[in-house]
Amino acid sequence: MSIDLNTMPKLGFGLMRLPERDGQIDLEQVCRMADAYLDAGLTYFDTAYVYHGGNSEKIVKEALAKRHPRESYTVATKLPAWCMKAEADRDRIFDEQLKRCGLDYFDFYLLHSIEDGGNGDTYDRLNCWDWAMQKKAAGSIRHFGFSFHGSPEYLEKLLDAHPEVEFVQIQLNYADWENPVVQSGRLYEILRRRNMPIIVMEPVKGGTLAKLTPELEAKFRAVRPDASVASWALRFVASLPGVMTVLSGMSSPEQVADNLKTFARFEPLTDAEKAVVEDVRKTMMRVETIGCTACRYCTDGCPMHIAIPDVFRAVNTMKLYGDEFRPKAFYGGLIGQGHGRASDCVACGQCEGVCPQHLPIIELLKDAGARLDA
Known about the structure:
By secondary structure, the protein is α/β, with parallel strands linked by helices. The protein has two domains: 5-284, Alpha-Beta Barrel (TIM Barrel); 308-372, no CATH class. It has helices at residues 27-39, 55-65, 88-101, 119-125, 128-137, 152-161, 184-193, 214-221, 229-238, 253-264, 271-284, 308-321, 325-336, 350-354, 361-372; strands spanning 11-14, 20-21, 24-25, 44-46, 74-80, 106-114, 141-148, 167-171, 198-201, 243-248.
């Protein structure tokens, strides 16, 4: 049964940053969060083969498939280019995903993290586009699209070559609107010109836009004293025409409650509020921070077990707040948990090969080591 992509609930539940306890996903807490989300009349759950080392898809089975009627929720997952070498890997991974999730079909299926060269070439070489259409014809996929981290020019090329695509997922937030690497604004305009439904990822930029400097937070609170800082970022993207769903990687019941409050009686940004967001964005751009969104693609293959996103979080905190004590204490806790130091980096480059933000991680770790390991 197909879904009207233009009337989807605006808030999607991202299963990428789930709460953990003792190193494992906290299933009991996730169930409470998922139940609250469903009780609000929302349905869209987004996972992927690689999230939480594969355990995110397993959570779909435990929190949803075993506990709720299939028609009460929809599930999106993704095919990872970097886990495939031959065409046979497509079905191997897909069958594993269905088994992990405890499902007979996926409502939404995406080719994961397409960018110029690399992943995009792999999907072409392994004929994943036609393969996905075969899965759709068989009823194993209801809607097909891709997530994208590439250039505007490459996006245009893909859309021209693949009219079968029904939606596209892009990184979109007010901080990245004019980011010369992410180019959120240009990607959005391309998709709008083609009337392509848009799924938004990283609306809060990995949590960066949920906690700002006191100066910036005061700008928002002066207009809406009772609204969270994160709600402004979510309302910014959800107010844009053509946005089908906004994914929020919710990590706690408190985040779920705040997001439900934002979307329960959704109010698009007014012109005056748009001006406040633009003022905040321009002020933010004066401080150069590391554009890490904590996707954690870089961590699994790190031979030195460096918690790279957490290291960058510490550095950004130092840059934004001029505070050394708390970031260094946080960093010391990472080392105490068995993670490598920033200065332990051996420059193997695996992290840079999988980073959707195209960050020069090796150089950034050198700088982080100078700041944090001194």
